[in-house]
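**User:**
Everyone, produce one record:

**Assistant:**
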Amino acid sequence: MFEQTTTTSYTSYSIPIAREGSIMDLCDGVCMVCGDRSAGKHYGVMACYGCKGFFRRTIRSGQNYSCRFQQKCSIDKDQRNACRFCRFQRCLNVGMEPDAIRPDRDIIGKQKNPRRKKLKREDSSLPSPGSDSPSPHEDVLVTFLVDVELQSMGGPAARTPLPIGIQRIKSEPDMDISSLFSNRYAYENEAYEMGYSVDRVATVEQLASALRRYLFATVHWIEALSSLAQIENVAEKVSILKSVFAPYTILCQAARTAQFSRDMDLICLCNRTTIPRQPPRHLLETNLLSNNLVPRMLDDLVAPMRKLSLSEAEIVVLSALVVLDPDSPGLSETSSNSLSQVRDRVQNALFQLIRENSSALQHVTSRFGNILLLLPPLAKLSSLVGENVQFARMFGGSLDPLLVELFADNTSEVIPSPSTRERMDVSTQTYSSTSPSLPSDLSEIHEDVPACTEPTRPAPVLPTVNPQMSYHPFYFSGQQFQMQQAVSYASSQSYTQPSFFDSTTTPTQFRFM
């Protein structure tokens, strides 16, 4: 049985995907319900004989349980019989399928394991990507991925409840992205147990805390999957992190929202707070939710996930597919190929997972395709996250240095200085004839753009004035007053050039100011 600890070495989970068949060297796995030794996959998940039989008896007899302790009982191999309500809810939460229990085939005590497996091999005629028959290798791989997810979220070993108050971000001056991979203890105190609720709207501090917690979870996933792909270079892990942090974060928020909430107008965060469809002003002012990010997440991801009713195992496998990005910039060809091989095996595991819970070919292929169709909108939303972070850097307040480093082109520039923020504040700008300096990424706009020349304008035509007429500075009589009106009107129609517009200013610069 895998040992559930807060800091886990992934050497015991090493799966050299490149060599076929070596996956069988792994141990049998753990029960996703109670953590005991697994007896294989039952009703869609890895489960022990005890939890398998308990789930089957509950469904077949149609029993209803109740909990005496606010539905928060601990379910492990030593206390799994203490509360049947919480144990059954745990079975459902990890993805056990009630529909997989068939009265005509699943008769208690009448069928041995070898015979059932033999009948399954003979009756099943469904093809799978890359293999002719169901492979036990995928079962072990899914078990490994579920265990990684449990540990990244805090897992059963995390006994400290999440504080109700605002989570403080404890930024260390010397902490950067590389240190997250080289020193796992650097963020151990901040990696609180992730949980989801719909009771409170997030504050700015809680939003920042949730983003940092998703960052730590992404690092945990990359460490685990890099061991499968045999990637040890820290720089390559950082490249993967920069590429997959945004899609992994969006996927977690959308999947857990669809799983734990039926409200169509809010997003659940990992620190038991929410973001409504129309975020309050204090969250909008951070600019991290610009570009209608929340409504698009709800409509493009959460709604389809609710229709699919993704199981826990399907969410975990989909998360692994997102993290396994072989096209991350900065990867060597060898590392990219290794990630591609692992991703192919995970994708095949997803197909086998769906196949285990259905006997109809049309349903299996349709569900498999619909789950993969979640990835394109996920990619679009991820690009919005990067844009919003850059937008927040220019016009928002101080950001988490780790978050800035993830999306910054120049990693040395972490947080703008006060003078830089003042220059970016429109309310403090003054017009000047000196051309402003544009950011480096806008320098190409100057190419082939003609300079704006000074506009020509006709001289105003003034009426003839009698030089012998005396003019009083305040009092005008008759004709003199009419002439003064004509002069004033002609002067008002003349074009006055702004002081900040000169011959060296391009149209692009004028818009930028």
The chain has three domains: 1-13+132-424, 31-123, 461-490.
